[in-house]
Every structure is written in structure tokens, then in C-alpha cells.
Amino acid sequence: MLLSGSSTGAPVPGCRAASVLAVALALSIGWGVRGNWGHEYGAMIPGALSALAAAIVSGREDWRRRAPYFAFFGALGWSFGGSISYGLVLGYAHSDSPPDVLYGFAGTFLIGFLWGAMGGAATALAASLERRRLEEFFLPLLAIFALWVAWDYLALFGLLGPEELARLNWHGTDWVAAGVALLVGAAASLVAPSLAASLILHLAAGWWLGVLVLVEALGLHLSPPRSDNWAGSLGMAAALLAFLLRRKMAPAVIAALAVGLFSGLGFATGLLIRVAGHASGIATNWHSVLEQSFGFIAGLGVAAAMGYLAPRLPLAGPEAGARWWTEAFSVFFVVVGITYVNIVKNVLVDPWLSNRVVPEKMYGVPAFWWFNAAYLALAALVAALIVAHRRRPLAALPVSALGRAQVLFVVFLWWIVIGNLSRYLPFPPVRLVTEGVIHLNACLLTGLVLIRPREPDEPPRRPGIARTFARKLALGTLAAGLAAALLYTAIALRVAEPGDPAARFRFGPQAVRNR
Question: Phi/psi at 227 (nearest 5 deg)?
């Protein structure tokens, strides 16, 4: 367990502050790295790391056996919020206008909540659903992924020109991706009805409903002229909670609300630190401080939610899944897929080229294609190892579920940390507060994940989840969001320096209204 002791008062192995610290550091590191690569792909990193860390330190052997699923679903859950634009929302809190500052803190709480609610629910699904239910997600998700990749490559290779893309722009939203998910979810629900197909359909429909009602009908815009993906994310979160409540999936509801609460507070608190940092006159990367602080506080939410669920969910025995390949795919997706779609930005978005880390072309071939060839070799190796291990267990991999989960975690963590560090070569001193801190935290986290968990480490059983707990948590979230926005606004107005170059305005004569 992460937070609770045993019912007899005796300490439970793994039930220490170190366990909570491990999960918080995992999300902090992931979010610090996510700030460099950005968007949905970058947000997969903290989702996978925090979910994996929670499984490892949970003290539950069944969760450790499911480590690949924890990483896969955690990554997907946290990725949804990556489409939300929040740069201007942060800037509002740097202004000297009370309505703008209040709006900035309230907006960051909302965005943080949306991110954490989706991530927390997805992590809880990996812990609470039967394996066969988890396996039902993979075929429709593979269809969605394939169509998303095809669409991305149409734009990447110029098959869709600027004029075509401009005509397809609808409030700057990812409506094509949401439309693909809606069609696949509807088709899967008709052809092979399942909980997975129904959830995908509900999420996609919720996205469309959110944009159509909030943006089209009511004309609401969170931070014009930026994209309105926030409305789709809000619709998805509402659809998710409605779906979970109707299906009486209390563990996922609890995790969604708890992680959403901590994430909202974490984002608002990180923003307050950034405002105070700008006012202090200390020259450093305060935005990265915001990101890592947000990740740490949100990680505390993951630890709290999974710590609450760990002693209350029934233990699952050894599970022989009908689709064994889903576990193998999860490993490949995390180790190769998530790392590729992020690290490729080092050469695709130009830092390696502009910093002359690699030449633009080698023997007449662009660096992008050399990178792809190198990654293809890595992908082939990982796939071959997975297949070989399926046929005959590799001696290099531990026999225990804990050991395998630790290997997956450490390999993924350092693959990401080193890939992120390579983005900033030659290394400037200003990056010490980012990559330097991330490196030190990764060293500490590696030690915690490898040393603290013990085997075997089964948690004691406790009564089920109280039905009133979710309602109290929902009310507490609303109260905490309002209180934090008001308190942080008062503090920011006292400490902020007038004329902060990061200031933006949503109201009054200085507001930017380009819609």
C-alpha cells in the first residue's frame, strides 16, 4: 500500500513515505520532460511513469503482474489533456488586473483537474477491471491509432497543404481525431459490443458535445485566440464520470476525482510559484519549476488514490488472458512507441539541427531518416526480445513480477531522461534547473523503485469503498478549487511585479480578442 498502515497498526512493507515519494517523483520527472516535448505525446510520459511506480510500490503482486497495462493505460489517460492550450491562461495570473489573475488561477485549476481526472481514471481501470475487460480495449484502440498516424503523416509530408489545413481548422480543435474515435467507437459497439467500445464511444461523443455546446452554442472561449480543445476535454471528463457512475465503477470514479483535485491544486500552486519567481528577480527557468511542481503535487494525488484503492480492491489471481499479445503490445508501445514519438522531435522540430548536434544531411540523406533507421533497428530488437521471451523466458529478465516491472520502469525512465538531455546539447548552464534537477530526481527515484519494494508484500484486506466518499470528494474538489483560486489571487496581486513581460489580459481594454 502507499498511504495506509495495516488494520492492526503494524507497518506494512512498502507502506512508507518513500512509496508516496516515488510516485510523486515519477510524475514530476515526467512532467518536467513533457514540458520540453509537449502536447499529447509528451503527456504520455508522466502517465506511464506514475502508473508504473504506483504498481511497483503498491505491495500488490497482482498489480505488479499488470505493470505493462498500468503503463499503457496511464499513458493514454494523461495524454488526453495534452491538447489543451494553457499558455495564455498562465499569463493572465502574471497581470496586475484582479479579474485576470482570478481567471488565470481558476483556469489552471480546471485544466489541471481535466488532466488528472482522465489520468487517474485510466490508471484505476488498469487496477480494477478484469484482464479480459482490459484486453477488449486494444483492437478498437489499434484502429484509432492507425487512422491517427495516417492523418498525421498526411500533414507531415505535405500531402495536405497549408490551405487545406486552414480550411479544416475548426476552433483550432482536434476534431478530426475526435471524429475518428467516434466512428471507431460506434462501429465497435455495433460489431462487437463491449465495455471498451462503449467507453470509447462515450468519450468521443462527450468531446463533440462539449465543443458544440460550450463553443458553438454558448460562444465560450477559455483563452482566445488559442484552440478550444479545453471544451472537448471538459465534455470527455463529464462523459467519463457519467459512464463510470452509471456502471457503478467506483474505483475509477474515486481515482478520477482524487487525482483531478491534486492536479488542479498542483497546476495552480505551480503557477503561483512561477509568479513569485518572476517577481523575485532570480533568473532561472521558472516555467520548468512550475511544471515539475505541478507534476509532484499531481503525483501525490496518484499515490493517494491508488493508496486508497490498494487495500480495498479484491486480489486477482494469476490471469491467463485470451489475448496474450496485448501485454506484449503494451511493453512495445511504452518502450518504443512513446520514446520515439517524443525523441524524434529532437531532429524533426530542429534543436539538433540548429544546435549543430547532427548535420542536416549525411551522405545526402536527411538526419530525420537516419534517426528513423536507427529507431527501426531498436524497434526490431525490442520486438524480437518480446517474441523470444514469449517462447522461452530470457535469463536476463527476472522471474518475479516485481522484478520485471522494475526493469520496465528503469529502462523507460532512463531512455526518456537521456533522450530529453540530448535535446539540449551543447548544454547551457540555464538548463541545470531543468535537466539537472530531472537527472538528480531520476537517480533518487531509481533507488526508491529498486530498493524499497519487498517481495512478497500483500496488503491486508479492508471493507469496500464507501458510496458517499465520491460525493464528498466531488464537493471537496469544487470547494478546494474556489478557495485556491481566491487565495492565490490575493497572494499573486501582492507579490507580482508590475509590467511582468509574461502578463496577458483576458478582460478590459488590453484583452486580446481575435475571434
Answer: -65, 160
Query: What does each C-alpha distance from 318 to 157, 326, 460, 462, 503 come to in angstroms?
Result: 46, 16, 19, 21, 55
Q: 499488470: which residue's cell?
A: 66
Among 256, 257, 254, 268, which residue's Cα sits nearest to residue 297?
268
Domain ranges of the chain: 17-315+398-495
Question: In this model, does residue 65 exceed pLDDT 80?
Answer: yes
At 242-256, the pLDDT tens digits run 999 999 999 999 999
C-alpha dist (Å) from residue 92 to 108, 112, 227, 229, 506: 10, 16, 16, 19, 7
The partner residues of 362 in beta bridges, in order of sequence, read 365
* DSSP three-state, residue 361: strand
Please give the helix or strand (H or E) that residue 210 lies within, else none. Answer: helix 195-210
How confident is the model at residue 203, as a pLDDT? Answer: 97
**pLDDT value for 320:** 66
Q: What are phi and psi of 361, to 5 degrees?
A: -135, 150
Cell of 115: 488532466
- DSSP H or E run through 215: none
Q: What is the pTM of this model?
A: 0.92
Q: Is 357 exposed, middle or buried (0-12, 13-18, 19+ CB in 10 A)?
A: middle
Cα–Cα–Cα angle for 182, 226, 50, nearest 5°? 65
287: pLDDT strictly greater than 80: yes
Enter the DSSP assignment of 459: P
- Terminus-to-terminus CA distance in the chain, angstroms? 50
Listed as own residue / partner, the contacts of 171-176 with beta carbons closer than 8 Å and 24 or more positions apart are 171/211, 171/215, 171/227, 171/228, 172/85, 172/225, 172/226, 172/227, 172/228, 172/229, 173/83, 173/211, 173/227, 173/228, 173/229, 173/231, 173/232, 174/83, 174/229, 174/232, 175/208, 175/211, 175/232, 176/151
Q: Which residues contact 220 (CB under 8 A, 6 or more apart)?
A: 214, 231
Strands 361-362 and 365-366: antiparallel
Cell of residue 283, nine digits? 533568473
pLDDT(350) > 80: no
Phi, psi of 281 (to 5 degrees): 85, -5
Q: Would you say 477 and 261 are in contact if contact means Cβ atoms under 8 Å apart?
A: yes
Measuring CA to CA, how many Å separate 177 from each of 42, 174, 182? 17, 6, 9
Give the DSSP letter of residue 3: S
Instruction: Measure the CA–CA gap between 272 and 285, rounded to whole angstroms.
Output: 14
Beta strands (DSSP E) in 327-416 are 361-362, 365-366
Which residue reads 464537493 in cell numbers? 475
From 76-90, 175-189, 423-437, the region with the lowest mean pLDDT: 423-437
Q: List helix spans (H) across 38-130.
A: 39-57, 61-65, 67-79, 87-92, 98-128
In tens, the pLDDT along 451-493 reads 988 766 655 566 667 667 888 888 899 999 999 999 999 999 9
The DSSP call for residue 365 is E
Closest by CA position to 485, among listed 130, 157, 100: 100
Of 146-155, 160-169, 361-370, 497-506, which range is least confident?
A: 160-169
